[in-house]
Q: What sequence folds into this?
């Protein structure tokens, strides 16, 4: 990151920034060697997660996806082979202790949500194994390492800030889709420019225009700047203005409506919804596709299916690796916790948490 920061300008913005560069090499199971990932922002462009989050559509999409994944419980399953029927049999088993609180110092919601945040913006995330069970040497607790503080070297060495970390104690999450900072910088840059234009119009309390000298001794550029600054300050201080016979004021004819600023911002909100893979109606972006939802449950399903599913699968498959759980065991999110209505008075309602816990205990005792 030091090399990236050194390459960035102290101020200004490139008009035609080049494309970002992102690449993975090696393999990402995380037992002996992690996958080095190098990301470079667009050349001469002051880029950051904070800049992207300042766009309301991006912030809304991120919060929807992260809150959905962070609210889901983790469950543990075992797969066996039924030789008589020649089929695989899956059965839910009691979860490991860390599944309720992977990081003892944080809530499960916190570590899962910020893991998805890293995947959403950077396409990768890291957990550090902080304790192991004595039996089987499997992880007992974790700590999230912010992705911007982790560097995987080409020789397999891993550093967190400036400290070396044993790669065997690192769980690496690799997103199946590119991070928002890699492929979304043009769309977000456009949204930022539109927001800046709206901000300028909102701060302008007097009509935009220009002063034109019509006679007298020509003024220097410095004198013209001083006159314009005094004119603006006087108009902000009082509503009445005065000019002599040598200066005229011309009001500009362009305004946000003529510039189609509102339409452009609405279109860009739709573009950012596409970029984040979130249904447009969830971020209040206008769409002519006619895609709507009929009820709150359908909206929750759409969020999981279209926005959160890549990150759910990434976390499930990573935590199901042999460096986290024993062979033939795998981790799943309990999607029913997000989709069900625990108060629904019908026979088809999904079981609530208490019923699921009782059933798991009965299965364990059987």
A:
């Amino acid at each position: 990151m030091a090399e990236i920061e050194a390459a960035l300008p102290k101020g200004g913005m490139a008009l035609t920034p080049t494309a970002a560069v992102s690449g993975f090499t090696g393999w990402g199971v995380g037992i002996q060697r992690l996958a080095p990932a190098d990301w470079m922002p667009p050349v001469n462009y002051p880029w950051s997660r904070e800049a992207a989050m300042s766009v309301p559509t991006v912030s809304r999409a991120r919060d929807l996806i992260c809150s959905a994944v962070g609210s889901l419980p983790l469950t543990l399953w075992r797969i066996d082979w039924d030789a008589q029927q020649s089929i695989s049999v899956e059965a839910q088993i009691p979860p490991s202790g860390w599944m309720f609180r992977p990081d003892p110092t944080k809530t499960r919601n916190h570590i899962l949500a910020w893991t998805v945040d890293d995947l959403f913006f950077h396409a990768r995330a890291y957990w550090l194994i902080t304790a192991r069970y004595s039996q089987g040497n499997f992880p007992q607790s974790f700590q999230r390492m912010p992705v911007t503080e982790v560097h995987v070297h080409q020789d397999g060495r891993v550093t967190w800030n400036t400290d070396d970390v044993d790669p065997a104690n690192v769980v690496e999450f690799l997103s199946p889709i590119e991070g928002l900072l890699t492929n979304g910088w043009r769309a977000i840059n456009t949204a930022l420019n539109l927001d800046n234009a709206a901000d300028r119009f909102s701060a302008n309390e007097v009509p935009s225009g220009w002063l034109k000298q019509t006679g007298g001794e020509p003024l220097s550029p410095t004198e013209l700047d001083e006159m314009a600054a005094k004119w603006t300050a006087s108009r902000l201080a009082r509503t009445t203005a005065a000019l002599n016979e040598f200066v005229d004021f011309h009001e500009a004819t362009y305004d946000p409506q003529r510039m189609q600023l509102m339409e452009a911002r609405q279109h860009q909100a739709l573009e950012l919804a596409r970029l984040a893979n979130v249904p447009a109606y969830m971020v209040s972006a206008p769409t002519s596709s006619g895609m709507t939802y009929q009820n709150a449950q359908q909206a929750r399903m759409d969020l999981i299916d279209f926005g959160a599913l890549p990150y759910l699968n990434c976390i499930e498959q990573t935590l199901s690796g042999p460096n986290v759980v024993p062979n033939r065991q795998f981790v799943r999110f309990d999607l029913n916790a997000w989709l069900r209505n625990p108060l629904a008075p019908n026979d088809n309602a999904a079981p609530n948490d208490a019923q699921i816990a009782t059933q798991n205990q009965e299965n364990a005792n059987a």
User: Anything to note?
Assistant: The longest strand covers residues 74-82. Confidence is low (pLDDT under 50) at residues 1-32, 39-46, 342-350. The two ends are 53 Å apart (CA to CA).
